Structure formats: C-alpha cells, structure tokens
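Design job #97: recover the sequence.
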C-alpha cells in the first residue's frame, strides 16, 4: 500500500517536471538538473548543451548566466571561452541600473547559480575579475532583507559558497515542508557547505516523509518545488530505511558475514581435497596398469586397458543420468562446494535463510521504489 502511494506521488512529480520544464527559465531547468544530478534514481536525466548556453550568456539576461553557472558548478567540461562568457555575462549584470537588475536581486535560484559557477572558477585565469564578481555578489546577498520564502535557503548557501561565513547554521523554519525538503536536497548536492550543519534526526526524517505523502503535491508550473519534492522523497526513503536498519542489526549481519566467509572457505578447501582424492585414485589406477603391463606383458593386459579406458565415458554418462548436467571438472567442483557448504552450515548452526532475509531487506528498501530513468533535453 505504502509503495503504491509513493510510486503514485513520484509519477505525479515527474509528470509535473516534464510539463513545467517546457516553459521554465533556463536557470530553473539547470537548477533542477543540478539537484537531480547524474544519478538516475530520481527518474529524470536532463541533458544540456553548455556550448550553446556559453555563447548566449554574455548577451542574454541573467537566466542564461545563472544557467551557465550551474553547469560549471556541476563540473561540466570547461574551456577558456566558457569562463570568459560566464564572466562577461556577470559584468553586464553589474552594469545594469537598479531597476534593470531588480528581477535578479529577488531570484534566489539565479543568485545560487552564479555563486555556484564562481566557486569553480577560482582555479582559472582572470583572478581579479572573479574576485570582483564574488565581492559584488556577496554584497548583494548580505544587503538583502531575509524573506520567509521557502527558497531563501538558496541565498544562504550562495553566501557560504562565496565566503564560508556559516549562514547555513542559522535555524530552519520547521513548519515549512518545502523549506525542510529543500534542506535535505541541498545537503545532498553541496555536502561540503553542510559539514557543520546539524543533520535531521530520524524522527524529523519520518515526519517530513509523512508530510510529503499527505500534503497536496506541487502542480504544473512549480518546476523547482516539484524537483525538490521528488529528490527529497527519494533521499528520505533511503534515510528512513537505513535508520530502521538498526546498529544491532548491522553488527549481526557483520558477524554473520564473517561466519559465512569462514564456512565458505572451509567448504572450498574440502571440495579441493575431494578433487585431489579423485586425482590420486586415477593416478593409482593408471600406475597399477602400467606396472602390470611391464610385469605381465601387453598380451595379458590389453583387454584390461580397453576396459579401464571405457570407464571414463561410462562415468560421464552416469553423472549426466543422475544430475542431468554435462560432466566437467568445474561443474563437479562447484557441486561439491555447494554440498559441503550446506553440511557445514547445518553443523555450525548457521541459518542461511535469516542471513539472506536481513541483507535483502536493505536492498529492497533502497531499490523497490526506483523507476527507470527518463531523459529531458534542453
């Protein structure tokens, strides 16, 4: 029942993203791409053309510049002209009048996009220009009046990317589901900036997951919110599942793994000894045959040589008759190992069923709600 509810919500959110992405600004699409990343677990893969955007960033508005910033931050392959176009776009923004730049000043997503790109460019040329751009953007972030918008955390993250002052350590609005979901997603994407920020407790994760499942989901047009909900849903499911998989259980699995490895190794050694005994028997038979040939003569032992030689195909046929498998040394060895394992498991009191149930529970929690990847081109 719970899996159907989650799967239905994921399907709805993916549909909202696919419908909303057609009319969304470029920097919003790049932000979604940054959050979802290259991991197909969220069900969507967004492909972007950095060369096309780079050529437009220097002349178009701030959405192109911020979009290029997100792509640079995501470690797309860069060249000198990408850096130049990105910095040229920022320079044009800085020359705008107060009224002309006002839409950018209130766009938290765009501010994070430009900060994301500037941090990556620290190791490139044009250090003075990059430092000036960082000081300009930091000034904008610091002078802005803090709002109660659920995206305001993006501005704090942008500031910490630029100067590392720890704005993210400020308390989060615990009553806003979108803000809490955004916090989970941002922590997963920008892990270094969240090293000193306290983690959500297990109870907080469970509560937030319940809110996402119960509250009305974002609808068409809410691209950023739908992407945040989708990614947060996937991350929370994994975190809650891992939290239920308690430390005593993990320790028990570790101990069972040690026992199983020891018993499996012992079974392999015993199987090799069986093969050595068979080899010794064959050597003994043929050594005796050779000895009798020299002692009794070929005329006496010819008949026995033919009889012993026919033994090999008879053994092969008998093996196939009883096992319905073609005889080979590898198959015989693997079969012997498996038989020895079962005997050792029973003798040592190792319950293979319990071990498999405990390990499969983790794999099931991590993979049962994941849908196939879907690709969206910009």
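Job complete. Output follows.
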């Amino acid at each position: 029942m719970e899996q159907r509810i989650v799967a239905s919500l994921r399907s709805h959110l993916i549909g909202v993203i696919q419908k909303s992405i057609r009319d969304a600004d470029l920097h919003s699409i790049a932000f979604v791409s940054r959050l979802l990343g290259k991991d197909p677990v969220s069900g969507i893969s967004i492909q972007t053309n950095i060369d096309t955007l780079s050529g437009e960033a220097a002349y178009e508005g701030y959405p192109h510049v911020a979009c290029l910033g997100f792509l640079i931050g995501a470690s797309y392959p860069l060249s000198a002209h990408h850096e130049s176009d990105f910095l040229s776009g920022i320079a044009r923004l800085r020359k705008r009048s107060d009224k002309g730049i006002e839409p950018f000043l209130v766009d938290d997503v765009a501010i994070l996009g430009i900060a994301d790109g500037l941090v990556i460019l620290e190791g490139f040329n044009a250090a003075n220009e990059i430092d000036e751009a960082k000081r300009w953007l930091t000034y904008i972030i610091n002078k802005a009046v803090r709002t109660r918008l659920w995206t305001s955390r993006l501005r704090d993250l942008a500031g910490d990317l630029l100067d590392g002052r720890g704005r993210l350590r400020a308390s989060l609005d615990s009553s806003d589901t979108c803000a809490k979901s955004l916090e989970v997603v941002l922590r997963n994407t920008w892990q270094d900036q969240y090293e000193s920020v306290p983690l959500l407790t297990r109870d907080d994760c469970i509560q937030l997951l319940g809110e996402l499942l119960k509250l009305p989901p974002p609808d068409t047009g809410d691209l950023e919110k739908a992407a945040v909900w989708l990614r947060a849903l996937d991350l929370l499911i994994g975190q809650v599942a891992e939290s239920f998989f308690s430390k005593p259980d993990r320790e028990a699995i570790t101990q069972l793994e040690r026992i199983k490895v020891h018993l499996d190794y012992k079974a392999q050694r015993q199987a090799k000894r069986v093969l050595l005994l068979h080899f010794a028997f064959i050597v003994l038979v043929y050594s005796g045959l050779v000895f009798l040939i020299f002692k009794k003569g070929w005329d006496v032992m010819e008949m026995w040589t033919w009889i012993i030689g026919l033994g090999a195909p008879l053994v092969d046929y008998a093996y196939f008759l009883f096992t319905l498998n073609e005889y080979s040394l590898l198959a015989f060895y693997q079969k012997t190992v498996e038989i020895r394992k079962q005997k050792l498991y029973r003798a040592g009191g190792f319950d293979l069923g319990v071990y498999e149930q405990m390990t499969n529970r983790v794999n099931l929690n991590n993979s049962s709600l994941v849908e196939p990847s879907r690709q969206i081109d910009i």
